[in-house]
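Sanity check

After download, print the first record. It should look like this:
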Amino acid sequence: MVSDWWEQIEVLIVAGVTKARTEAANTSIKQLKRTDRSFRNETNYRTRILLASAARRAA
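Expected structure tokens:
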């Protein structure tokens, strides 16, 4: 079990880096995609994602 994840564990130990921030951003984008199914314009959808991301960082 641990051997399956050893590479990721080693990166955490050596570099102190995880992909938690990326995974959280992906989860937020997926949630926006679920709630904003009415967007037919790709530009509006992308703008919505960028605005939500900026609002999270400002808070």
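If your output differs, re-run the checksum step. Summary of this record's structure: The chain has a mean pLDDT of 82.
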